[in-house]
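Z., the sequence and structure:
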Amino acid sequence: MKLLRIVVPALVLLGMAGALGAATLEMANFAPKDAQAVIETDNAAGLRQTLLESRFWKALEQTEGFKEWRASQRYAEMQQRLEQFLANLEMSRQEALKAYLGGRSAVVLLPSGDVKKPWGVILTECTFDNAKRLVDASGAQEATKYRGVTIYEVQKENRLDRMAFVGQKGEAAVFVATSADGDALERVLDVIVGGGGAALGIEGHFRQAVDKLSPGWRVRAYAAEVPPRKSPGAVAMYPSASAMHFEWRIVSGQGDISMTAPVVLTAPAALPPTAVAAFASSFHPAAIWNTVKAKAAEQGEAALEKLRRGEMFVRGWFPGQTTDQIVGAFGPEAAMALLKGDSGGPPAILSMTRIADNGAAAHSFKNGLAAKAMLLSALGEQNANSPKLNVREEAHKGVNLLIIEAPGVLEKMAGDWAKDIALTVAVTDKWLIVGTTPAGVKATIDAASGGPSLAADAKDAVPTEAATRWGIVQPASGADIVLSIVEKFAGKATVDQARKLTNLAEVMKLVKRFVWTRVDEPTVIRGQADVQAIE
């Protein structure tokens, strides 16, 4: 996509980002109503400075990859072009940032006939005199007039850069530029000169997407089609000294949320505080099954036959249970987590599904799995080349754990971790728990029984209202285990190379946690996320 290739490369080199400044212009009011996307920024120069002063940037500067970029020929050429551009402007870097990125600015994407290559147009707020200075510095010449506005053009090697500005001498102006083919510039000028009558900013679908976002955003992005509903949506960013807050909304007509209806998630209170990453979700198996059956019926007999075979496979994992009993036995939530290991032991991957009945289906799954594992173990004893399985049970706080070990198989990949890794299944009064270590499952049983939990450890991050999805990642506490997992399965050399190139562990340890929540409603999907730095 050709996007903002006139003076924009120089502006990017100056450091385009977003931070709160005086809100003066609503840039969406200058975008045509059929714009595919609009990304608005408030005081782009401000966040650049905040970023340069941040601990994240200082850590990034120490990475090998960043140092190599700074020392590259391409970087030197970019800096040379920047210095030449500043000389043409007769401004210092800070003066140029304040002049052209100190107010509101936006990138507007317009339909071009090619969905994958929309036309890009940049708009920025500046003074009339500075707009003229920007045109002169770019080497553009007057080409034509459109609706009384002068359009300037400059021919580059492989593109034509076009620009204009609207305003009164001695007052504020809006500078518009594009290198897109077609009439992208004229379409934006139609809106600006015409007073916004055909503007995106007054369209109902735009207002529905943005109006309930919290005020005070530094960057706000709108798109006309956002998955999963392919309907209008918007996201806004609210940076502060130690955190980054995001909010988003996707609006549509009446939608079916039977499979994603929000519930009050209890899984965080059943996960141990050693979780460095966790994901919880509403889970409605009966609704999912009914939807799958309806779609198969629409597709015909071939799809129905596949469905019947799939149904038979699922029933095989739950001996003695019908399909209706299985889908009615679980919900309305499920969760997954990555747990720290004990005393240098392996981390555990854990899944949990809420039990909706008396636990008969969950126990059926556990007992059926035990029988299959014992059969494989018996067959393995008759074949020297078959993997050897050890199947046993162990009690913990009144709950019997099914433990399936295969140390001979795992030693090649996991080394000394192999003795602590085992497929472990437990059924409590509320949860079917499946994990990769007995220690992780035991810790989860402890949390689910009222012991220390993730919810208590990160209570400010756990939603109290009904939600469809919720997730948490705690990089600072999980950096070491993530790297240890990579080292075990990819080798120490790979980890050492990653450390050298990305300073990965150091960067991860600057982030306390990343938390996000999603809530599905019939006419809107809304959510928020927070990135919190270590203080």
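The chain has a mean pLDDT of 86. The longest strand covers residues 330-339.

Let me know what you think.
H.
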